[in-house]
């Protein structure tokens, strides 16, 4: 199996890292949670990006802040890859002269998809906040996200991004 | 938590200018696709219709449709291949020369080559050369 260092993957797919942090930050803004520091993309750090936010009162809000990338990055992946995925799979011919722009957009969208899974740190923060309210569902979620991140080292996040990049065209043009 | 209170809070919904510019650029490209999509759909509908006519062996109709498409989209090998195949069905050498012009410089994979030799007279196969493709 091909092993590529994580920082190299983050570097090549940096728009996804930025989108991942934006989605955390956006949910903080929605729930009026103060944000003190944001690293949209840190190439020379062990963590590609980070959001330092204040205390979250409701567990539900904490959960939504942690899981935000799963929704936002996946949605961005579906939307931004739509033009080139459509051209590449459903249209045998096309009169477009700006295909390179669609390829660029596909790369941005695909990168978002690659970084859609919440990180282990994201789930840890929810687990810490949950403390005595740790339900079976939360424990399951925690293990599930850890499993996803483990499998991402075996390219699961790429397979996921590739899969969801064909959702919209197959819905619309099939 | 005390450390966090010493840090200043970032105003809500404010994002760096580069992120805003990138978002606008992505929206513009999506807008361009939305603008092009109707014409892409129309062209593909015509292409499908031409392909169906070809498969039903309605070659006169198929040739007219592919010919019109080739004028609009000269960069698509599949259209030229179909035109060449239909021209090879004619018995005159002039049509065969036109067919060869369509095929000039084209690289055909195995399936397209097999598709072509069903129509092309055998004596022309020598005019093609096998190219090794490194993967």
Overview features:
heterodimer; A: 174 residues; mainly alpha; 2 strands; B: 135 residues
Flag low-confidence runs of chain A.
none
Q: What is the typical, i.e. mean, pLDDT of chain B? A: 90
Number of strands of chain B: 0
Roughly what is the average pLDDT of chain A, rounded to an integer?
91
Q: Give the helix proportion of chain B (percent range).
A: 55-70%
Please give the largest β-sheet of chain B.
none
How would the global form of chain B be characterised?
Answer: elongated
Number of contiguous helices of chain B: 6
Please give the largest β-sheet of chain A. 2 strands, antiparallel
Stretches of chain B where pLDDT is under 50 for at least 5 consecutive residues are: none
Per the principal axes of the C-alpha atoms, what is the gross shape of chain A?
elongated
- Round the Cα radius of gyration of chain A to an integer and report it: 17 Å
* Largest binding interface between chains: A-B, 32 and 29 residues
For the termini of chain A, the CA-CA separation is 34 Å
Number of distinct beta strands of chain A: 2
Indicate the multimeric state: heterodimer
Q: What is the helix tally of chain A?
A: 9
Summarize the amount of helix of chain A as a percent range.
55-70%
Order of helices and strands of chain A: HHEEHHHHHHH
Strand content of chain A: 5-15%
């Amino acid at each position: 199996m091909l092993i590529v260092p994580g920082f190299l993957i983050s570097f090549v797919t940096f728009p996804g890292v930025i989108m991942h942090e934006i989605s955390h930050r956006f949910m903080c803004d929605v729930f009026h949670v103060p944000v003190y520091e944001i690293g949209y993309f840190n190439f020379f750090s062990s963590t590609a990006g980070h959001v330092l936010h204040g205390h979250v009162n409701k567990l539900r809000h904490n959960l939504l802040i942690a899981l935000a990338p799963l929704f936002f990055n996946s949605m961005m992946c579906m939307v931004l890859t739509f033009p080139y995925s459509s051209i590449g799979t459903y249209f045998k011919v096309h009169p477009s002269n700006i295909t390179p722009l669609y390829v660029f957009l596909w790369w941005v969208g695909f990168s978002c998809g690659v970084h859609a899974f919440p990180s282990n740190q994201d789930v840890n923060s929810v687990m810490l906040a949950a403390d005595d309210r740790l339900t079976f569902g939360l424990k399951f979620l925690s293990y599930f996200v850890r499993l996803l991140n483990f499998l991402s080292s075996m390219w699961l996040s790429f397979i996921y991004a590739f899969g969801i990049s064909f959702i919209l065209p197959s819905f619309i043009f099939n | 938590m005390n450390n966090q209170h010493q840090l200043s809070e970032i105003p809500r919904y404010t994002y760096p200018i580069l992120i805003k510019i990138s978002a606008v650029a992505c929206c513009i490209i999506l807008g361009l696709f939305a603008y092009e999509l109707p014409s892409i759909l129309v062209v593909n509908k015509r292409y499908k219709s031409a392909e169906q006519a070809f498969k039903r062996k309605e070659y006169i109709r198929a040739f007219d449709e592919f010919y019109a498409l080739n004028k609009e989209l000269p960069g698509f090998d599949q259209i030229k291949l179909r035109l060449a195949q239909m021209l090879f069905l004619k018995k005159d050498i002039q049509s065969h020369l036109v067919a060869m012009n369509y095929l000039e410089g084209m690289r055909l994979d195995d399936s397209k080559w097999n598709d072509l030799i069903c129509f092309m007279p055998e004596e022309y196969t020598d005019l093609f050369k096998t190219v090794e493709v490194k993967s």
